[in-house]
Amino acid sequence: MAVVAVHAADLKFEATAWLRQARTLPMAEQPRPPELSIYCREPGCPWGMILFDVLVDGRGEVEALRFNDQIGDLSNATRAAAAEAAREAWWRDARPGQTIRSSQWVRVLPPVRTPTRHIPFPGTNGKPISIFLERTGCFGTCPAYLTTLRSDGTVYFCGRAGVRALGWQTGRIDPKDFSALVELFRRADVFSLEDEYTAEVTDNPTYIIGINIGGQKKIIVDYVGDEAGMPPVVTRLQDAIDKAAGTERWIKPQPSWTDFRAPPPDCTTPPTPFSG
Predict the structure, then answer these.
(1) Which domains can be identified in the chain, with CATH numbers?
(2) What pLDDT is attached to residue 273?
(3) Model pTM?
(4) DSSP state at residue 30
(5) For the stretch 220-256, what's the b/e string if a residue is b when 16 or more beta carbons lie within 10 angstroms of its beta carbon?
(6) Helices H, strands E: what count in the chain?
(7) How do 100-109 and 129-135 pair as beta strands?
(8) What pairs with residue 70 in β-bridges?
(9) Average pLDDT estimate for 171-185
């Protein structure tokens, strides 16, 4: 029965492609597929990826899809959930008036590792607070930098590689915006989260966030953490720090090449001291 079902899916897909006169574009002209991820709901589910053949119409909607391949020992239920995500995806760079054949990968992430104990968020009244984010380089052109925001309104950025501004840069943050960022950390219950989420892969950047409240510190290391059960709130905090610090003004436009012969900037110590 399974073989019959597979053949039926193939016939339906090919019939739709024929009716819509679907085209296979050269690789350089293929629209970029949306980045899709789903969380596996089955205990012990591993990380994996599922590949679908898709037909995308001129509005960017998926008209038909069929299973092609997968990485990892994933169940039929997980494949069905991935197919649903691929079917509902919208292709931003579709070709108006054309239906095209393409491919869609869906990442399957393991279940989130929820905290096993609660550590209360420290009181903040009258205490110096600093928040930082560091993004390291990778086997490619990933921007490498760190940024620190302080409760006195100071913002520091230090570019190491792959950014427009190398070395230390300074800015300011409104006290209300800083307080809102601290509140995001409080709501995320960061002191209860694990210190490290690391996947068994290579050549990717490492992201590190930290908060220091009057000497009480929490640091979280993320190395492709979403493939190791990292709660999504950690990524949201990383992005929130970038936004609050305004790091994009120092990152873009990124240089087209990096001179690895030059010594990297010293980003170990901010330009001015800070108590806390």
Answers:
(1) 2-109 (3.30.2420), 129-251 (3.30.1560.10)
(2) 58
(3) 0.84
(4) P
(5) bbbbbbbbbbbbebbeebbebbbebbbbeebbeeeee
(6) 5, 12
(7) unpaired
(8) 50
(9) 97
